[in-house]
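Hi R.,

Here's the chain you asked about this morning:
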Amino acid sequence: MSDELDRKIENILISAISDGFNRALNTLEDAGAINREEMRKEYKGVGSKYYDMVSEQFEYTAQYAKETIRELIEEESSKQ
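And here is the predicted structure, written out as tokens:
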């Protein structure tokens, strides 16, 4: 599998994971389960403490999942 396809898969996964994370946080906050006031002080985009911590985990998860997707693609391709 090409490096370009790997990057595309990782980018799709990071976007999906990030979207799910943000939606979950908003839902929990709306339900009163969490208060993100303190977190917002250090979650302000690239370079901020919490943002970078969370982004690192998105990237790690995407790399891990990419391997599984790659195996699935290769398995399906070999059947044809």
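One quick note: The helical segments are 3-30, 37-41, 49-79.

Cheers,
M.
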